[in-house]
User: Which sequence fits this backbone?
């Protein structure tokens, strides 16, 4: 599986608000993904036909041909990649 970051931003006044997006290949199909953190709560979605499918939701994962556990594994991989690139998940490091 290939995961790539395209861009992102963080509101330095509201340090727990940020967005990061990128491209991911799942089962030989390319998708846009988005990681959103608001007030410290992070969600990660894959865009399919203009609809955000949450990687933490079993029904949404099924639409991607994934189990809930596989969706959570991908969610973790995206979080790790974002963190490795210098984006803080817990809060913006100054």
Assistant:
């Amino acid at each position: 599986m290939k995961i790539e970051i395209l861009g992102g931003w963080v509101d330095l006044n509201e340090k727990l608000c940020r967005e990061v997006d990128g491209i991911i290949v799942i089962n030989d199909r390319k998708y846009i993904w988005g990681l959103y953190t608001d007030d410290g709560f992070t969600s990660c979605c894959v865009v399919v036909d203009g609809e955000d499918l949450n990687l933490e939701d079993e029904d949404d994962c099924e639409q991607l041909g994934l189990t809930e556990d596989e969706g959570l594994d991908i969610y973790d991989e995206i979080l790790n990649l974002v963190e490795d690139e210098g984006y803080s998940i817990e809060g913006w490091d100054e």
About this structure: Residues 68-84 form the longest helix (17 residues). The beta strands are 3-10, 18-26, 29-38, 41-48, 51-54. The radius of gyration is 13 Å. The chain is about 25% helix and 40% strand.
